[in-house]
Amino acid sequence: MNEGMIKIILGLIGVLGTIITYLLVPYLKSKTTREQRENVYFLVTLAVQAAEQIYGSKTGNQKKEYVINYLNSHGISVSVEDLDMMIEAAVKELNIIQKKALE
Q1: With 70 as the cut, is the pLDDT of residue 97 above it?
Q2: Full-prediction pTM beyond 0.85?
């Protein structure tokens, strides 16, 4: 192959990557049901509560690692951004419950 053909092929690979990123990924995300998302959030909440019980209140990185390992052991793959959002929501929920219990 000559250099021109290689550049064309590399350009096509870049275009295909862009198409997959902007069209296919959102389409696949839209195919998850509300029930599936709720199940993942339930497992995140469960893992956050377990991590809080195991590690106490001063080791955030260990707790996050525990949650990630728990989800991975159950075959759940979630983006870092989505996982962070779910963990923060679960922690807030846990804090509200704990605050009400102390009142």
Answers
A1: yes
A2: no
